[in-house]
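Hi P.,

Sorry for the delay on this. The queue was packed all week, but I finally got your sequence through. Input first:
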Amino acid sequence: MWLSDDMLAAWRNSERTGKPGHPRDYTAMAILALATLQEIYHLGVRQTEGLMESIGELLHLEGAIPDYATLSRRRTTLAVAVPRTRGQEALHVVVDSTGVKVCGEGEGKVRQHGYTYRRTWRKVHLGVDEASGEIVAAGGTTNNYHDSQLLPDLLAQVDEEIAQGSGDGGYDRRSCYEAIRARHAQATIPPQRNAKIWQHGNTKAERLARDENLRRSRQLGRATWKRESGYHRRSLAETTMFRLKTLFSERVTARGFAGQAAQRLVRCAALNRRTQVGKPNRSRA
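Then the structure:
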């Protein structure tokens, strides 16, 4: 484990806000570092405190480690920025969502004995760069939100130009097409099998991207249209979901919604770091 000198220098909070009450002893960087270690090593809050105390003894940082109560309270207010590399080309953003458990029995127990109390879960909504595999936008909601409701917010998190936005049939909504159209991007969303044309072809208004997708799909066939439009690249969002759950967990441990949202963002940031470190450097021989 390597801790940079810059992070150690900014570990303790030396700023005074002038507001009543005791100032915070630790910076947000210190709390984020502990929260990241907690997610990477699948630790509890007290276990994370013990791990950092052991590391602090080796680094002669005795007395400079936040206790478990401070970490539990401060991590709910973390403003986590998901780090990623930025290129010059326009992005192809693929979106999807998945559920993470909050409470409830495992599948084996339910299959054998049934439910004993109602399950609860949260939803993670991700926007992934198709070319790099990095997470470029992330959001979290309760389980009563539809996937399409978060698409405008996900696209708003992307600063670069977007060339194409792809999602599954759950995003076949007017709000999703309008959000993609506002970014001057191509919408690649398969219309539902019982879909109808929204706007008659003889109208003088601008053609709708959704209607054009539906006409092309009927002309070529659904499978051929998906290959032609590059829709199958959307599966990379599902790959990212699988990596997120496999490397970290399919469950969140924080009790409050704010803590659960911060926990999910910390995982996304750590996953992007791993993606960046694990990429090979390619060059022509």
